[in-house]
Amino acid sequence: MQKEVVVSGIRPTGFLHLGNYFGALRNYVRMQDDYQCYFFVANWHSLTTHPDTRELQKSVLRVLAENMACGLDPEKVALYVQSDVPEIAELYLYFNMLAYKGELEKTVTFKDKVRQQPDNVNAGLLTYPVLQAADIIIQRAVKVPVGKDQEQHLEMARNFAERFNYRYGDILPLPYAFNYGEDLIRIMGLDGNGKMSKSENQMATLYLADEDDVIRKKIMKAKTDQGPATVHSDMPDFIQNLFTLLGLVSQADVVDHFKTQFNNSSAGNCVIRYGDLKKQLAEDMVQFISPIREKAAALQADEKKLKDLMAMGADKARTRAKETLYLVRQAIGLNY
Ligand code: TYM
User: Atom of ligand 1 at shortest distance to CA of 131?
Assistant: First the structure.
C-alpha cells in the first residue's frame, strides 16, 4: 500500500530548541517508519528577515545535523534544503495568484513581524504562508507535523489548494497539521512570556546545543511564584509549562509526585517546593539534551558527508516535486 505523504520544515534562523523538538522533531522521528517523509530546512523563509547569509549557511548545516541527532535517518526520509528544490518556487508563483492581500495581511505571524521589523515589511514576508503552502503541496502531502503556532498557516495552505482545485481541477490533496493523538503543542519560554523561540530571550529558551551547566542555570531561573493559594488550584501557565516539560523528559511517577504536591498545597501550607521540582527537571533535561548535543556536534564535524546527504535528500524531493509540477502545469493548461 502507498504510504501517506508527510512534509515539514524548520527555519535555520538560530539554534534549535525544545519547542522545535516537542512541537515538530519528535513527531518527525516517530513518523519516519510509517509514512513517506519529506523534511527540510526552510532557508528561503529565513531570507524574509534579512539575516547575515554567511551565518545562514552555517545554520543550514547545523539544523541538518540537529535533525539527524534527534533520530532522523536520511536513508529513510528525504532530508533536504528548500533552495535545492526550485520546483517549490514555481508552485509558489501559481499560488500567489490565488492568495489575497486581505487574508495575508490578517495572518498572525505577519502582524507579529510587522511589529518586530517595521522597516522591513517586504512582499516575501506578506506571502510567507504562500511559500509554506507550496513547500507542502509540491509533495502532495496530507500530514504536516508542526507546533500550535503553525496551525493558521496550515489552514491557509488548505485554502490555496482548494482554490486551485476549484479553478483548475481536483488534483491537489488537502494537508492537515498533525500531532500524535493530541492537540498541537506549544512550549512556553521559561520566563513565562509567550512561546519558546529561537531568537527571543535566550535565557528563557532551552537549546538542543546547550551545555549541561547552562541547562541547569536556565531551569533554576525559570519563573515560579509563591505556590497555590488553595488546594486543587488551576495552574498559572508558567507552572503548567514546567509540568509539561517534566511530562516530556521525566518518569511518570516523578510527574505524579509533584502534581500531588501541587494539588495538596495552599497558602500557609505549601507542600510543593518549586526549587526541588526545578532541580529534578534540570537533571532530567540534561539527560535528555546532552546526547543530542553531542551527536549533533559529531555530525557537524564532517561537512562533506552532510553535504552529500543534503544532495541525496534534494534528489528524492525533486523527483516527487517534478511529478506535481507536471500535474499542475497540465491542470492550468501550460503544457504546450
Ligand atoms: P519554525 O522554524 O519557527 O519552527 C519549526 C517547528 O517547530 C515548532 N515550534 C514549536 N512548537 C511548540 N512550541 C514552541 N515554542 C515552538 N516553536 C517552534 C513549529 O511549530 C514548527 O513546526 N513556517 C515554519 C517553517 C516552515 C514549514 C513549512 C513548516 C516553512 N515551510 C512547511 C511546515 C511545513 C516555521 O517558521 O517554523
Answer: 31
Clarify whether residues 319 and 239 are in a common domain.
Answer: no
Question: What's 56's domain CATH number?
Answer: 3.40.50.620
- 43 shares its domain with 89: yes
What's the gap in Å between 43 CA and the centre of ligand 1?
A: 13
pLDDT tens for the chain, 336 residues: list them.
789 999 999 999 989 999 999 999 999 999 999 999 999 999 999 999 999 999 999 999 999 999 999 999 999 999 999 999 999 999 999 999 999 999 999 999 999 999 999 999 999 999 999 999 999 999 999 999 999 999 999 999 999 999 999 999 999 999 999 999 779 999 999 998 889 987 778 999 999 999 999 999 999 999 999 999 999 999 999 999 999 999 999 999 999 999 999 999 999 999 999 999 999 999 999 999 999 999 999 999 999 999 999 999 999 999 999 999 999 999 999 988
Single-letter code of the amino acid located at 82: Q
Ligand 1 site, CB within 6 A: 7-11, 19-20, 22-24, 42, 45, 132, 135-136, 144, 146-147, 149-150, 153, 185-187, 195-197
Residues 162 and 259 in one domain: no
**CA dist 239 to 193, 234, 270, Å?**
12, 10, 15
* H-state helical runs in 100-236: 101-105, 108-116, 123-126, 128-137, 151-168, 212-220
From 195, 259, 279, 295, the catalytic residue: 195
Range of the domain at 277: 210-296
How far is the C-alpha of 311 from the C-alpha of 70, rounded, in Å? 20
174 & 229 share domain: no
Place of cell 523528559: 249
Q: What CATH number corresponds to the domain at position 268? A: 1.10.240.10
Mark whether 195 is an active-site residue.
yes
CA-nearest residue for atom 7, ligand 1, is: 20
